[in-house]
Amino acid sequence: MIKLYPSISILNGKVTRLTRGDYSHEKEYEKSPVDFAKMFEDIGIEVIHLVDLEGAIKESPVAYHVLEAIAGHTDLEIEYSGGIRTDGDILKLFEHGAKYIAVSSIAAKNRELFTSWLFSYGREKVSLSADASDGKLLIKGWQKKTDIDLYEFISYFYNRGLKYVKVTDVTRDGTMVGPNFELYKDLVGKFPDSKIFASGGVRSADDIQKLEDAGVYAVIFGKAFYEGKLTLNDLKTFIK
């Protein structure tokens, strides 16, 4: 059964959702990150995807207090993403309660360093975030477009033992228009030995079912839940 990874995006300590990664189109939610985390834990969710929006821009993690609070008040496993650049960042995140990390920008800038992390920390703990628009990679909190081809980028690390790949179609993120199903079907076919995570555009339980049917390992969702389009009861149907 497909894995569910709720995304809790943090900006200035608040749960905040962007549309297509645009920081000028942000929406804050009243509930605290811990409150949302507890809601997910109560229905059987085991892992959350914690996104440090400010850290992604500053190129250094800053939401340690949120990470520590969720780790201290729940038994959830936490995957942290945003601003990770050094071994020191990784060790500090693990010390504050992160179980896993997801890395994007530094993998694009320094492939050798990211490859070394796959070996030193283990491919169970380190995943690649490959976020793209029109097939080209976006980095630095999706604010900078590169000329790096999405498939070439994934293939480089796939050939070096990468296990977990989180792919976001940024043009659909926060839009609730539906995932790019063809993209994920293609990725599952091209990288059969990796676990593909789909992110961006999810709007309903039907979308999640279609991603499962396409062979996607896990789905990362956010806005659809916060806006009431995807309910806790919807999510329960995908939890063993």
Please give a structural write-up.
The chain has 240 residues and is an alpha/beta fold. The protein has a single domain, classed as Aldolase class I (TIM Barrel). It is 36% helix and 29% strand. The chain has 11 helices and 12 strands. Strands 1-4-5-6-7-10-11-12 form an 8-stranded parallel barrel, surrounded by 7 helices. Strand 2 and strand 3 form a beta hairpin. The relative contact order is 0.15. The mean pLDDT is 94.
Question: What is the overall number of helices?
Answer: 11
Structure summary, number of beta strands: 12
Q: Say what the CATH topology is.
A: TIM Barrel
Order of helices and strands: EEEHEHHEHEHHEEEHEHEHEHH
Distance between the termini: 8 Å
The proportion of residues forming helix, as a percent range, comes to: 25-40%
* Biggest sheet architecture: 8 strands, parallel, barrel
User: How are the strands of the biggest sheet laid out side by side?
Assistant: 1-4-5-6-7-10-11-12
Structural class: alpha/beta
Oligomeric state of this protein: single chain
Question: How many domains, as an integer?
Answer: 1
Mean pLDDT level: 94
The portion of residues forming beta strands comes to 25-35%
Find the CATH superfamily: Aldolase class I
Query: What is the CATH class name?
Result: Alpha Beta
Q: Tell me which CATH architecture applies here.
A: Alpha-Beta Barrel
Query: Shape from CA axes?
Result: globular
Rg over CA atoms, rounded to whole Å, is 16 Å
Question: Which blocks of ≥5 consecutive residues have pLDDT under 50?
Answer: none
